[in-house]
Write a structure and sequence with these properties.
Layout: H1 2-9, E1 13-17, E2 22-23, H2 25-32, E3 38-53, E4 56-65, H3 81-95, H4 102-113, H5 127-130, E5 138-142, H6 156-160, E6 163-167, E7 182-192, H7 197-200, E8 203-207, H8 208-214, E9 226-227, E10 229-234, H9 240-257, E11 266-270, H10 271-274, H11 276-279
Parallel strand pairs: 4-8, 5-7
Antiparallel strand pairs: 1-10, 1-11, 2-9, 3-4, 3-6, 3-10, 5-8, 6-7
Helix pairs in contact: 2-9, 3-4
């Protein structure tokens, strides 16, 4: 059970890089998606920063994700409080209500188990009354980032608190300076239960494009867009070492077609190799 938890926390095969990320990730994904043993491949950005929630500051890990695609890779949607736990209770109550047809009941059960998560702002919060510049992207925070235990119900004050995230863009072969720091305003729209506490307890999740832009990893006239990770979901009966080798071949081939003076580093690993130090502890 403990070991299985690690498989749900990430893809089966992962392309990793340094904090500055690597280029041509979409070209890699387009080719990886065509492999016969692959179900899906999704890019993400991993970083770290300083969060300020209503005046309380802490260092957090940051995952920039395509939230509409992330459920194809692992079980992140099933860790959410509002969009899974709470919504599931509501849908199951509807499914078990009087007069519900069997077909409709099955639809409700399927929706309860497989939500489509979102960073959309909450409909139960009057954001305009809270801040003059209230149009901000949504963020999902792990429970402990907002001082919750798994069994706690988040209070409205968590969703109404002003939140900023300070990050520092990292470019290949350039010094990191405090002058480069960028502060991004968010609203917390949901909370996530850590799947592996040591890895998730201080993590926040934000929209991929928002983090990519603020870390200066978007495409420019001179540089292609960058991501820091590609997570790959393999088919159930796939040989993961074989998939890893196929993915590594694609990554190397794409990089060879786009010679780059910075030579963005990458490594391709199975989920066991990525999480081995925790699994074997």
């Amino acid at each position: 059970m403990f070991k299985a938890s690690f498989r749900g926390i990430s893809g089966d095969v992962i392309v990793e890089s340094s904090p500055s990320g690597f280029a041509y990730y979409q070209e890699m994904i387009d080719r990886i998606d065509k492999l016969p043993d692959v179900e899906a491949a999704v890019a993400s950005i991993e970083s770290a920063g300083l969060i300020n929630v209503g005046g309380n500051r802490d260092i957090v890990q940051i995952s920039g994700i395509d939230i509409r695609q992330i459920g194809k890779i692992g079980d992140f949607p099933q860790t959410l409080f509002s969009q899974y736990d709470q919504r599931k209770r509501e849908l199951l109550a509807q499914a078990n209500g009087a007069g519900v047809s069997e077909e409709r009941r099955k639809q409700l059960m399927e929706e309860a188990e497989h939500p489509t998560p979102s960073f959309e702002l909450r409909k139960d919060i009057d954001y305009e009354a809270l801040a003059r510049k209230w149009r901000r992207p949504g963020m999902i925070a792990s429970d402990s980032v907002v001082w919750l235990h798994r069994s706690d119900t988040p209070s409205e004050s968590i969703y109404a608190a002003p939140v900023t995230l300070t990050v520092v863009p990292i470019h290949p072969h350039e010094d990191i300076t405090s002058q480069s720091a960028v502060r991004i305003a968010f609203w917390i729209v949901d909370t996530s239960h850590p799947r592996i506490y040591q890895m998730d307890y201080n993590r926040v999740y934000v929209p991929f494009d928002v983090l990519q832009t603020n870390l200066e990893m978007s495409a420019t006239d001179n540089e292609p867009a960058r991501a820091s990770t590609i997570e790959i979901k393999a088919k159930a009966d796939a040989d993961l070492m074989h998939v890893r080798d196929e993915v590594a071949g694609i990554v190397d081939d794409v990089k060879s077609q786009h010679p780059d003076p910075y030579e963005y580093p990458t490594a391709v690993k199975t989920w066991q190799q990525v999480h081995g130090k925790f699994i074997d502890a």
